Structures are given as structure tokens and as C-alpha cells.
Amino acid sequence: MPEFFEDVARKWKSFASKRRSSNRIDENAVRNTYARWAPVYDRVFGYVFESGRRAAVAFVNELPAGRILECGVGTGISLPHYSTGHRITGIDLSPEMLEIARERVTAGKLDHVEALEVADAGDLQMADASFDTSVAMFVLTVVPDPRAVMGELARVTKPGGAVVLVSHFPEQKGWRGWLGERLAPLSAALGWHMDFDISRILGRSDLRLVDRRRVGPIGFFTLLVFERA
């Protein structure tokens, strides 16, 4: 298994070397990469990220029923866990991942899912204040321009609404930092920036941080909740 993740990391590094000089990841390369991952994504990564994903959805389910945007919905692995009182729109850059999500919605009769759309999280084609809550799970440390994504999440969220994030941030020290290093090949497989500075998504005037907590059985992930100003 370690050899598998090392091989995955090498493949991701090869992909990362194809970035444009503007530091924007070529969208075709992203789509091609996740097209390959789509059939096995849930089996390989589903369990690893389950605790962080469940924590974010549990927080959302405590909120009043409303329209929810999930950015980077992928295969839709989180969709069955949302309260049926919410109305969910999911977006992702990968059509192949979304196809699996649509199959999951149909098989599970998930009538609370309103739409699943191909979209760039940094350039959403949605009206201002369209959603009561926006959610991004394991997304911000992957995208080439996290500030643009944060700006879009803030823009499409209603004033007073919540922007909910969960990820692993490499600021962690001690044994959590050690574990992060051990999982580096897995992180590389998903394109995580292991040198990601959490300050890149903090300090915005349009988003007020109201909750920050470690989640998961060993507190390896961080849940961030912002209120839209």
C-alpha cells in the first residue's frame, strides 16, 4: 500500500508540472486526472476523509432548512447525509465524478438534491446571495486560487449565512504534523498543497470566522465556519 501511494504521488507531481505559467491549473488536466480517479475515488479516499466530511455535514444539519451549495461535491458521497429539509446544489469540475454523484442521487432517491453541475469554484455562474449556506470540503488546499474560491463562496451566500470549510491544514505540529507527513503521498494524490498557509483564507472583510475546531477521531482535520457579513 505505501508503494501505491508513492506511485500516485509521482503521477500527481507529473500532473502538477503541467501547470500554466500563470499558476492556474489547466482545467483539461484536472478533468483528465479526476476522470481516472472517479471509478475508485470512494474506495480509496472515502474512509480517510469520512470524519471531516461528516463533521461538516452535521454542522450544516443543525442550521435552519435552506438552500445549500456544496463546492467540490465529487462523487456525491456526502449527499445522503444532509437533512432532507435542505435543498442541495452540488458543483464540481469533473463530469465523471458528477456522473457517479447523479447515479447516487437516483439510486438513493435523494429528492433534496436540486442540481449537480459542472462548474469552476473560482468563477461561479450563480447570482449573488443565492444560497443560505456554502460548503467546501477538502477543496481549498487543492485549488490554484483559494482566494478566488473564498470570494465566490462569500458572494453566493446570503448575508448572515454560513460558509463551512473542512480540510487538513499543514500548520499542525507534534504528532498531528508527523501523521500529516506520513500521509503526504496520499495528499499529493489529491493535489493538496502541503505548504498551504491557512492565513490565505482568513482575514476577509466579508466573512467573519465564528468557529474553528479540530474534528475527527484524532482531531486531524479542521472545521472552519464563517458568517457572511
From TrEMBL:
<dbReference type="GO" id="GO:0000773">
    <property type="term" value="F:phosphatidyl-N-methylethanolamine N-methyltransferase activity"/>
</dbReference>
<feature type="domain" description="Methyltransferase type 11">
    <location>
        <begin position="69"/>
        <end position="164"/>
    </location>
</feature>
<dbReference type="InterPro" id="IPR013216">
    <property type="entry name" value="Methyltransf_11"/>
</dbReference>
<keyword id="KW-0808">Transferase</keyword>
<keyword id="KW-0489">Methyltransferase</keyword>
<dbReference type="InterPro" id="IPR029063">
    <property type="entry name" value="SAM-dependent_MTases_sf"/>
</dbReference>
<protein>
    <submittedName>
        <fullName>Phosphatidylethanolamine/phosphatidyl-N-methylethanolamine N-methyltransferase</fullName>
        <ecNumber>2.1.1.17</ecNumber>
        <ecNumber>2.1.1.71</ecNumber>
    </submittedName>
</protein>
<dbReference type="GO" id="GO:0004608">
    <property type="term" value="F:phosphatidylethanolamine N-methyltransferase activity"/>
</dbReference>
<dbReference type="GO" id="GO:0032259">
    <property type="term" value="P:methylation"/>
</dbReference>
<dbReference type="Pfam" id="PF08241">
    <property type="entry name" value="Methyltransf_11"/>
</dbReference>
<dbReference type="InterPro" id="IPR050508">
    <property type="entry name" value="Methyltransf_Superfamily"/>
</dbReference>
